[in-house]
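Q: Hi! First time asking for a complex rather than a single chain. Here are the components, and I think there are four in total. Is that enough to go on?
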Amino acid sequence: MSYKEKKVITIGVVSELTGLSERQIRYYEERKLVFPERTKGGTRKYSFSDVERLVDISNKMEDGMQTFEIRKMEQKQMRQAELREKMLRGQLNAAFNIRK
Amino acid sequence: MSYKEKKVITIGVVSELTGLSERQIRYYEERKLVFPERTKGGTRKYSFSDVERLVDISNKMEDGMQTFEIRKMEQKQMRQAELREKMLRGQLNAAFNIRK
DNA sequence: CGTGTAAGGAATTCTGACACG
DNA sequence: CGTGTAAGGAATTCTGACACG
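A: Yes, that's all I need. Here is the structure of the assembled complex.
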């Protein structure tokens, strides 16, 4: 796994990197927008990817979007990405695998 | 600056990532082999690059090398890198900048 | 020299709740 | 709904020191 995806950053540092309060960061987790890992002791650990996501969320919140709208939007993008991949696979199969 | 160089990881996580004890990690800092940053409160923060360096140090220690030898070796590599760059610059100057 | 450990304290994080709106 | 805050406790980290070798 790349460094960008590795969950190693504590919430205090994430707060500094994003400009968000720890309260906000925990709340966005409660609303299923970010998914930190935990140490054995229970301390949250985030990735740089999470930090990017949080900055993105922050911008959308400033634009007046609500958390459930953001979540819905991300899910939609997820579904579309899956759809694109599925279609691509289908075309590849059709092209190379004419007969079963 | 790239994610790899950003100092964001606390010593506990570094310990897990490297397999080194916190004691060892702090000692290698004392011996000038790693240079973490600090939070306002004084907590150490490391980069993924530091983690790589620590793994490297760990291997050298297992090979029976002493901390001062490791430091000396790294300094030598540093000097050689500088030298190579200086020579490269000189050649570029000679090629493109014939007259002052 | 390199590392483990117990010690005491400080910084960091956690959760659940009340508040405002 | 989204966020601030005070509260109490637990996890994490820090430093300086003693120990072994």
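A: Chain B touches chain A at residues 3-4, 6, 8-10, 12-13, 17, 39, 45, 48 (CB under 8 Å). Let me know if you'd like any chain examined more closely.
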